[in-house]
Amino acid sequence: MEQPENRKVGREAKESDEEEKRVHDSSVDYKGRVPLRRSTGVWKASLFIITIEFSERLCNFGITANVISYLTKVIHQDLKTAAKSVNYWAGVTTMMPLFGGFLADAYTGRFSMVLLSSLVYLLGLSLLTMSQFIPSLKPCDVEGCEKARKIHEVAFFLAMYSISLGTGGHKPCLQSFGADQFDDDHAEERKKKLSFFNWWNIALCCGLFLGVTVIVYIEDNVSWGVAILILTITMAVTVATFYLGKPYYRYRLPEGSGLTPMLQVLVAAIRKRKLPSPSNPALLYEVPSYKIQGRLLGHTDRLTFLDKAAVLEEEEITNEMKHNPWRLATVTKVEEMKLVLSIIPIWLTALPFGLCVVQTATFFVKQGATLNRKIGHNFEIPPASIFSLSAVGMIISVVIYDKILVPFLRRATGNERGISILKRIGSGMIFSVVAMSVAALVERKRQKIAEEDIDVLDGEKNVELPMSVFWLAPQFLILGLGDGFTLVGLQEFFYDQVPDSMRSLGMAFFLSVLGAGNFLSSFLITAVDHITEKDGKGWIGKDLNSSRLDKFYWLLAAINSVNIFVYVFFARRYTYKNVQRRLAATNLNKDDGMELMP
Hints:
InterPro entries: NRT1/PTR (IPR044739), POT_fam (IPR000109). The chain has helices at about 1-20, 40-75, 80-95, 95-110, 110-135, 150-180, 185-220, 225-245, 260-270, 315-320, 330-355, 365-370, 390-415, 420-450, 455, 475-495, 505-535, 550-570; strands spanning about 25-30, 250, 295, 375, 380, 580, 595. The longest helix is centred in the middle third of the chain and has 35 residues, at about 185-220. It is built from 18 helices and seven strands. By secondary structure, it is mainly alpha-helical. The strands form three sheets. It has a three-stranded antiparallel sheet.
């Protein structure tokens, strides 16, 4: 009797070892096979992906941090027009990922979209480089002309919007592709994945830091052409490096449009709106887990009207044939629809924070341009380089959170994240109010000094005030600390809480917070300028010394203060994704099964 039992135990152990060797999360390797856990994914694959993210952020911030100075000094736009140009471009750049993410999830897959969009990005950088070196495309024939050539302006904006197009496929897919390298159903890999978002943002901040210091210094003291050429070469090298990592990646195959199943749920729910809901959610329709590759979602008690889509009618119970998806949806599809609807209030309440973040690339930089930027007697900091303090603040925040707060909070709360995602997001929103309040106080001090300066009174332009640029350090650092909580939290939230088949689109939702923030900033500038001009001196003038930017900052602080209460209202009522986990065999225990993701 013991011999058959021993054989059964041995067979189960062998199956357990095989389960551990392979990754059964519906991903495939580069040859289309079930990936080997040991040779694919995790950090060995993520490092290739993080490298190209570092390069892209270096390029992005090396250009955008100083672009408002380029528009005012080279193309000769006034402050208001330049700020709007930057906001429009940044808005398009961060809204385009909605289209790129949708195409990647539905048709191309993330790897192919990243590769294609990186080539478009390179095309934009190459055109930008040519606009600096080809004589007919240069701003002027001589240094210091009063207005740039129209052909240069066209080439410049065409290059910038080509970069926007490349970003549209690059940004939503790259980070979600990196997160795909970790198996959610494997305990050790899941813990590593929580750190992935933190270290991803450290790489992002390193690219940002070098972009707004080294690259901006070259732009201001050598030439824009040399700086853009360096960025183009760097991007080309890292795109090639990214491609070399192909054998180590885990790939998710596109699953078609994620919008169609949601529409089917809505139609089915409307058709069955008069049917009674079952007293037990277990009676709702669901496909057995062994028949599908993806993860199943458990029922939640929110938006219960949509549950009608999963109610079985008598003929559907007796009919063994395939059900019509426009009349009957699974619980998982219904819950996916609920997820998308539930994240909308969180997205909306994140917009005021994005409104604050976008000020760092426009008004904060212009403030720095009016202040004393000298270190010692000979070295002068470029105006945009003060932006690096935001990256320093974010790095400090992320490292402290990942290495100190999370281990402590895991022991204190029993939550593997330390604190829930929404609490992390809300904590960062408090920093935005403090940052805008400090910015308003510093700007008022700068204005008082400007009002007493004889050169400003005489109407001279580009006057350097006797006030150190490091007065701006607190507002950059505080906002950077807030980024480490809110922006990283939003990345995790929109990756984890959207349906698994829409994760690229989920990252696009995160990026659209900043995109919509740019458009909101442009709208707010126009509205504030229009309203305040009626009383005489407008808050946003042609230059900083004729503006009342401190009042604009106080307005942003007030908006964010009110928004925190609105955010808390929705966050307290949010229900996290209810996943039925299928853990790797070595990790199975009595608590396995349905898990509410924090």
